Amino acid sequence: MDLTVTTADLAAAAADVVRLVPGRLIDPVLSGVLLTADATGVVVGASDRERTARVRRGALVHTEGRVLVPGKPLAETLRMLDQPQVRLVVEGSMLAIRAEGARFALPLLDVDLHPGLGTPAHTGVQVSGEHLSSALSTVATTASRDEALPIFTGVRIRTENERLVLRATDRYRMAIATVPCAAEAELDVMVPAALLAEVGKQLSRAGEVTLAMDANQLTLRWSDTVVTTAILDGAFLSENKLNLSGVDTTVVVHADTLLDATRRVALYSDTRGVISVEVGDTTLRLRATAQQTGEAEESIKATVTGGRTSPSYLSRYLQDALRPFGGREVRLAIQPGMRATILTHVEPQDIDLTYIVMPMLPPNH
Amino acid sequence: MDLTVTTADLAAAAADVVRLVPGRLIDPVLSGVLLTADATGVVVGASDRERTARVRRGALVHTEGRVLVPGKPLAETLRMLDQPQVRLVVEGSMLAIRAEGARFALPLLDVDLHPGLGTPAHTGVQVSGEHLSSALSTVATTASRDEALPIFTGVRIRTENERLVLRATDRYRMAIATVPCAAEAELDVMVPAALLAEVGKQLSRAGEVTLAMDANQLTLRWSDTVVTTAILDGAFLSENKLNLSGVDTTVVVHADTLLDATRRVALYSDTRGVISVEVGDTTLRLRATAQQTGEAEESIKATVTGGRTSPSYLSRYLQDALRPFGGREVRLAIQPGMRATILTHVEPQDIDLTYIVMPMLPPNH
């Protein structure tokens, strides 16, 4: 293999691929990056058997070829180069990265041991990259990071009435976002949230994204990038049954006002981190108290209808729930007892968001 | 105590004091902030017995008084308040922090157990805050952080020929900076580098700084802030004997060019992190190699005089040494064998800087 390419182009591709497939410490092959040069360009790819990523870049290819090299060192070297052009050329058992005045060489790994990049699916669902990115920034971070309970580490993605519904829970809260989509096929799949969180970050620069499903993987495709991921087993989380019959108190408030007050009052919360929200006629009064820390109380204006049910929350969860509504008003539908509170937008949005958070026993209970 | 004050003013004072005296976990009193309100304002102070800090702020004082409260919670609460004015008032056994719509209350600590803020010295040495801040950013970070060897955790500060000389070493490298000063008294003292590093950060906003010494402490005074610190015992590090008779190779190079190349080549260094610098007629060739990682080589233009002694360095130390010369040319005076390399400015600067770094055995030695 021997090719010349714009450094910044290849550096961005390598960085994206390494972030999408961080690899596995125990197996250097699965932490490798596969470079495939054909007549018109180079594909930067990686696979850890459960997920794959590939990015295509135009290049001046002198000799075609296919090599596997350590991923992170390649990405780091390209990132740190100031020289605008870089040449990648196989020299003996090394891949040389040559730029003006400099030569770096990475050992070649055995390309035959690599699982390859598989065959991505094509027909699927189209959605705006910006919408999906925004939805994932809330939903993918709500899933659990506890690998011992894999069923809570996934995001359920499903087409419903020309919208794509994304849903995740860690048992204590649940986020449901729906975005407009154009569906050539039905989709109903649960995939790892960690990968989707990284996809969401990279998507914010993309136009249209296609999601396509086959027997055992989901393919996401945008710009020059294709990502595949194995599907999690998750019959659960498939239904959209939200029983709101218990709601007796509804509060409308500016999300940022409540978020800022929550942050301040949370400084004084007990070791659990619980704050109470007292619902008044035209105010919410946030309270926290702890023997050691002191006590805090802050009132903010709110529009209250129905009863005066006054729940307590883990302040961290309430903050996570409020953040995606930032800059807008949010409606809190509160149920009595230990039943969930449901947060929704007041004004309709392109991305329809429902965030469900469980209450906690009040402080000093 | 009862006073009203501009929130941002008091928040900045509390944050500065808490950063200068982070306190001790084992003793809440030494992690406390002392608030002293008199007719015209409030002094925010702290002491951990070895260091003290106090900042004065104008305030509308309704009732004078003196209280001790937990420092970090006070600073955090003030930092997070959006309300422009805040009222601090003693209510029973609590200090209430009242702002529009909100009340926070911190428990009062026993002010009689606090060691107080002592008496700072006055007559001393004047130096520009900007100069001292810049010198400390290099010198204070070169000292060791290893508390087991307290003698290497200090910065020696000494007046010599109308300049203030600051010097620190961790045994592997040494930084010496001299800045112009106006001295009413001689100064020769060794004080903890960690405190000076924080002082350096806060000083960048200050005009003139005064350093004054008495029997067992050094006082630093700028704007509305006074800091004192206990003196370390350090007869050593007092002499400015730099024996450069062994220098046989001198290299002049742009500091940023060498720094950038060092960073790139260091990606390929061995487990020790060593890179070698081969001195040619008009170039420096940086090399690193490691069995697992691969190999790197980069050449940069340099002006070389004298011999061709080619040392190796810990890349991290070489980067630390080059960083303070950023944006300018640097002269490396290289000695053969395992003797130190001395880095200095090529063009005279207000802050005269000498950085000494020890070489290492070359890679694969």
UniProtKB/TrEMBL annotation, chains A, B:
Q: Which CDD domains match?
A: beta_clamp
Q: Where is the DNA polymerase III beta sliding clamp central domain?
A: 127-236
Native source species: Actinokineospora auranticolor
Q: Where in the cell is it found?
A: Cytoplasm
Q: What is this protein called?
A: DNA polymerase-3 subunit beta
Q: What family, per the record?
A: Belongs to the beta sliding clamp family.
Keyword NAD appears in the UniProt entry:
no
Query: Can you quote a single GO CC term?
Result: cytoplasm
Q: Print the keywords alphabetically.
A: Cytoplasm, DNA replication, DNA-binding, DNA-directed DNA polymerase, Nucleotidyltransferase, Transferase
Domain DNA polymerase III beta sliding clamp C-terminal per the UniProt entry, residue ranges = 248-360
User: Key word Lipid biosynthesis present in the record?
Assistant: no
**Which GO terms of type biological process are on file?**
DNA strand elongation involved in DNA replication
Give GO MF terms, alphabetically: 3'-5' exonuclease activity; DNA binding; DNA-directed DNA polymerase activity
Which ranges carry the DNA polymerase III beta sliding clamp N-terminal domain?
1-115
